[in-house]
């Protein structure tokens, strides 16, 4: 398995510094949080996009994917969602990213009058519409286990009906665990669709402040073990949510120990 980290852990850091961190600390790739407050966002012109792609190529670090904020199950009209998703796919094509991340974004705990069945159908319809465009440009859309669809069982209620190779899953191990799934259950649900895996660690279900990998309660060893047992050889991406927790320790100080922890888990699982 190859190791990456998300720029959610180094909010606003210029791309050359992000790539230097990855190279200096032994990571193979970077997931770019794609948001207007970050250096890489949907507003980049073609020249800027070419510069980003060139910086990755020169660094030897792979661009794992773009972590966008499209919410495919959100109530409302389809077209604004599809327009944003196509823009995200275009950016990924221009930068050379193989994946884009989208959120479900359906109603949580009855916050709207949208039923779970309506959310499933909405997300599947939009992802199905986007799938052919994604196929044409060689980018894969990954639905993250998050918010209204935080478990593998919930995600496949969308991915199953879509049934297209260009639409898959991003397994966020915190959300499936918070949703009550064991790693073996999450993997069994997501395996036919799995793009890559986001790892992290937290103190408890009540305190999700990001911690160094191995310092919290998430079953990272079990996750790596089940992936290894099934000979899965994709990406493990550390999503350290520094952007949402300003008091959390700086990610650069933790990158070495995080890589060592994941390497140890991989060795033990082998």
Summarize the structure in words.
The chain is an alpha/beta fold. The chain contains nine helices and eight strands. It has an eight-stranded parallel β-barrel, surrounded by seven helices. α4 links the parallel β4 and β5.
Quick take:
This protein is 42% helix and 17% strand. The protein has nine helices and eight strands.
Strands in their spatial order, largest beta sheet: 1-2-3-4-5-6-7-8
Which word captures the global form? globular
DSSP helical segment count: 9
| Mean pLDDT value | 97
Query: What fraction strand?
Result: 15-25%
* Radius of gyration, whole Å: 18 Å
Q: From the helix content, strand content and strand pairing, which structural class follows? A: alpha/beta
N-to-C SSE string, H for helix and E for strand: EHEHEHEHEHEHHEHEH
Q: Could you tell me how far the N terminus lies from the C terminus, measured between alpha carbons in angstroms?
A: 11 Å
Low-confidence stretches: none
Number of strands: 8
The percent of residues in helical segments reads 40-55%
How can the largest sheet be summarized? 8 strands, parallel, barrel
